[in-house]
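Limitations

Structures in this collection are predictions, not experimental determinations, and the ligand pose is part of the prediction. Treat each record accordingly. The example that follows, with pyridoxal-5'-phosphate as the small molecule, is included so readers can see exactly what is and is not provided: the inputs are given verbatim, and the output is the predicted complex.
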Amino acid sequence: MTERHGDPAYGFETLAIHAGQPPDPSTGAVVPPIYQVSTYKQDGVGGLRGGYEYSRSANPTRDALQECLAALENGARGLAFASGLAAEDTLLRALCAPGEHVVIPDDAYGGTYRLVDKVARRWGLEWNVAPVADPEAVRAAIRPGQTRLVWVESPTNPLLGIADIAALATVAHQAGALLVVDNTFASPYLQQPLALGADLVVHSTTKYVGGHSDVVGGALVAADPEVGELLAFHQNAMGAVAGPFDAWLALRGLKTLAVRMERHCDNAEAVVDLLAAHPRVTAVRYPGLPEHPGHAVAARQMRRFGGMVSFHVEGGEQAALQVCERTRLFTLGESLGGVESLIEHPGRMTHASAAGSPLQVPDDLVRLSVGIESSRDLLADLSQALG
Ligand SMILES: Cc1ncc(COP(=O)(O)O)c(C=O)c1O
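Predicted complex:
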């Protein structure tokens, strides 16, 4: 990162546009080019121009994204992967050994649960579950000497629970473990876990970072340079890297993250007002609501409360499925964080892999990813779908 373009004193919006992205030295292009290349000419054996040898190990477009992510999350090292789960897999296998243990949240993305339970467990990783909203329950779930990672999401997917990141960092560190925060729902604009004491941040950059539902990607950001180096070794050794075009799309998404997040939050607040007053909605889950049990913590550690809203529908699963199928503007689909609004039924869709586990979600639950369309149109669509 050049000092002029990535000066840490710059504000978030400035770093999002410039960190890791000085004008291209050979052409002056103001946007980092897509270096769609696998290998690089060497000037004599081992004589690398600009340090590049082979694109699994390093690629200039991916480097630009990685530097920008590190700057936005206040980390020592950012690393970009082919998907959020590829980032998670690399993290688990870089930092844990067979026989070690992780504490995972009682509410988490179903794919994270599946990765830990169905893949990493076969490799020898042990796990148990703790409620992220309760630091003392997390402390009780830790196995002294064996627990390597405490893993949380905040807000959680799909129940929008809130973890007190600073309190959990203390709990993890007292037990000699590292705190990992999946910051996908908040994005670095709304919340910076490393500044609150966490050791590692995980992102599905598929979501708010990319922001346009046109790329699948993941990222890790480490607070400590040595941990960052270990992860970088595994990124190269395991090979699940972000390709140049995908890295470029995520980088382009980052440039508008701040303005998009403000609009996501505005629209989510309008949607929450409508849902909270609707007779067919039995409960609304949104950390911005004063009655949300994590509201005070969220208000302390987040800039605003985000674009994700979940709610329970009167009449159980059938009624919830009906609402999901009746919207016209909210598209029925998995994923989140794009400019367009999405609706889904977590129990049957994103979290189907958690059925029968401690992470199973209620069947009357509907999850919204509130986009940046006109809020008037979004409210009209939800009103007609709820009937
Ligand atoms: C909170 C969270 N973390 C991680 C992931 C996994 O990311 P990806 O789908 O990019 O592998 C997801 C995907 O939905 C997610 O919602």
